[in-house]
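Table S2 (text version). Query chain:
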Amino acid sequence: MIPVILSGGSGTRLWPLSRGIYPKQFLPLVSESTMVQETVLRLAGLERLQAPIAICNEDHRFMMAEQLREINAQAEVIILEPVGKNTAPAVALAALAAKNLDDILLVLPADHVIENIPAFQRAVVNAGQLAEQDYLVTFGIVPTAAETGYGYIKRSSEKIDHAFKVAEFVEKPDVEVAEAYVSSGEYYWNSGMFAFKAGRYLEELEKFSPEILEACRLSFAGAQSDVDFVRLNKDAFSQCPSDSIDYAVMEKTDKAVVIPLDADWSDVGSWSALWEVREKDSFGNALTGDVVAIDTKNSFIHSGNKLVAAVGVQDMIIIETDDAVMIAPKDRVQEVKKIVAVLKNDQRAEADLHRKVYRPWGYYDSVDNGDRHTTKRIVVNPGAKLSVQKHHHRSEHWVIVKGSAVVIKGDETMLLSENESTYIPLGVIHSLENPGVIPLEIIEVQTGSYLGEDDIVRFEDKYGRT
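Corresponding structure-token output:
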């Protein structure tokens, strides 16, 4: 069995913590581990598991590799999607990457919470046995409420081992319909998790959505390998239709079965859903960071940097980060995505970027900005190196505050230590490297007529960036 980690979501409903360049699956929202890491860690103890195949946006490739490395999980391959095309093509790519068409793919979205691990693992074992019999297995969550935010799966009366034949998939219902679904006992929440042989999935995809399979084959055949990454052919993949596994295959095949799963599951699709799964105080509050809550009940309050004080608040979501504050009633958190839409329409960086931006070499934190200057705190990991580059519109002043740095500036190479500095004039080719064993920290002051991150001309980059 090969775990397939799907990491294509943007998590806009969990803004401002989750953003386009650093979405929810890479955040530690429920435990000290990130959601990607939790997805892999909950498989520990299962037998005959191969190394996972991860599929993610190209912008997230280094985060995926680093977070897997942190938990000693080496991916068989990390497939980079140049554009998002939904789950049917993503899983087709994983099936094409499998070395054996009889290998079972265990398809797992990277942003789920599952608290009852033994129940989940039992369901996985049962799914593997059914997949061996050429069934296409989905996991149906036993509903605990008439939820209108999920699609549903109706089971038939025909039982096969620990599963039921699928009668139909249904769209997100209104409240009355959802209540009827739950009371009938015949419907499950659609989890988006699956298990099937790689070859069987490809056969069914070719039968029902051959244009998807053809585009995936072309993009995979034209892919380039780069260390742990597979970069798909962008032109071929861009021609692929966008569709989910449900629509492309599962609703049409006669081999679909559903395993009921009662394992304290959540897709953490909103702040209220995250509040549900977080530990709470005696007043029903989930509090994170430096928070003072007085006469406050049933609220989620997150402080990232500053003291957040609340008085007389009930059923509210208050989220503070280093560059944004979001406040909403708990029953309107589905509308947070409207904030992101407005920010994108206004071309504001906060829609996709945090003030702290992660790079394959470390991260930088923009601590001050003006019309003609930007000040950043830059942290470079041991052994890491920024690209050899130049800028057309800005010059840079670097001050070393911790560690040591090898700096290339034009034809000059120098070793700088704490309290030493250098100046990089506009247009001069330069690079920065950490030769030490502790993180390198510098303060960078940029000055110039244009200070955007796209004013970079790269000549050499150890991470394969253009």
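Notes on Table S2: The chain is about 25% helix and 35% strand. The chain has three domains: 2-266, 271-336, 356-460.
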